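Re: export button greyed out
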Amino acid sequence: MNKPADLIITQIGWLMLYSHTYPEVYKGRVNVLIMKRGLFLIMAVSVGFFLWLGQEQENIDDGQSVSYPQPGHEAPAFEAGAFGGGEYSWEEGQPAVLYFWTSWCPYCQASSEMIEEAHHRYGDEVEMIGVNVLTQDRQQDAETFIRENGLSFTNLQDSEGAISDMYYVPPVPTTVFIDEDGVISHRKTGAIAEGELTSEIRSLKGGGE
Amino acid sequence: MFPPYETWTLGPLSLQTELIFLLLTALIGIFTFSLYLKYIGAEKEKDMSDNITWAVLAAIGVFKFWPVITSPALLTDPMNLIYFTGGAGALPAAVIVFAGVMTFFFFRRSWPVVMWESLLVSVMTAAVVYFAAIVFYGTVSPLSVGYNVNDEVVHPVNLYAAYLLALTLAGLPVFFQRRTRWYAPLVYLIAAAGAIAFLLQPFYVSS
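Workaround output, generated via the alternate export path:
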């Protein structure tokens, strides 16, 4: 009984007797066993595949993200006419806060005050760029909004909605934080409070005051 | 599947798909929690099912009013309670409050340990639905299969996550039919969640 062949023969004998005496129970247990082994095999293959893929990923360059308005990806480039005249073209190189707004939105009113304050405080190091979603607004109302709220940072006219479409706006307000490498570090939909704005701007500056 | 920032317009309301599915998955999580407790025949199932709703509401409340909690000066204008939501630290705070409320009830009402297993199952089920619905673009992929963004193939990270989480959940009734050790399913779920995070880490874009 010590030989492996004897053990296997004994096991098969017991299995045959068991399956003959309790066919339903036997069938159920075999099914469970097959399911367990099958699932375990699928899990092992999946883990192996993802480990292999992770290894392959390391062989690719560092420039791994694409241009897409989601944190971690490169911010899509844009250009538009500014309120007050002139063309503006954004290029990476300086941290920026891209702020989409309309004149009729009360949330934008609350956020605009925060952005203006941040512009006065951090404007030398981080550029604040307002984008008026003109496809959802009227130019005259937008100009009144800028004047009444004393907005002194750059504000662009997104007349055709090209920038808004690229950044999946509306809803407004939407604030996008872009670091000096042109990568989106954070995105906020809805009014932005001072605490969040300051914290994100500080992280754009590398954690300084 | 939907891009996270795409909006659905309902009359005057513009709702982001990401937000809609977050709310939907919260409901699915609560429903699954209750269903799983019934499935394993847990004691005090009714009490646990009723109180998870309070924990979820407390977490949503903390997330919503986080700007006012952290900057009470905003209360000078009561409209700020409506205008501002979330922000830095709001999500971790909401999760801590949720876990805190559940822990409080767990000790106060002597709930069985199986509550934590049920909680993990419901969170994972909700995550499967969320990841199956909302697109997350990962890093550029060496494979030819994936999402195509600006002529580059990127990892479909949300699908990877949904697949691995679904596989983990499928293993629960198969590997732990007899439930001889109460902690085994819990250990299995925690270990699987850690393994999934580790396996998918190379494909996430880091901000």
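Strands of chain B lie at 7-10, 13-16, 137-140, 147-149, 152-156. The button fix ships in the next patch.
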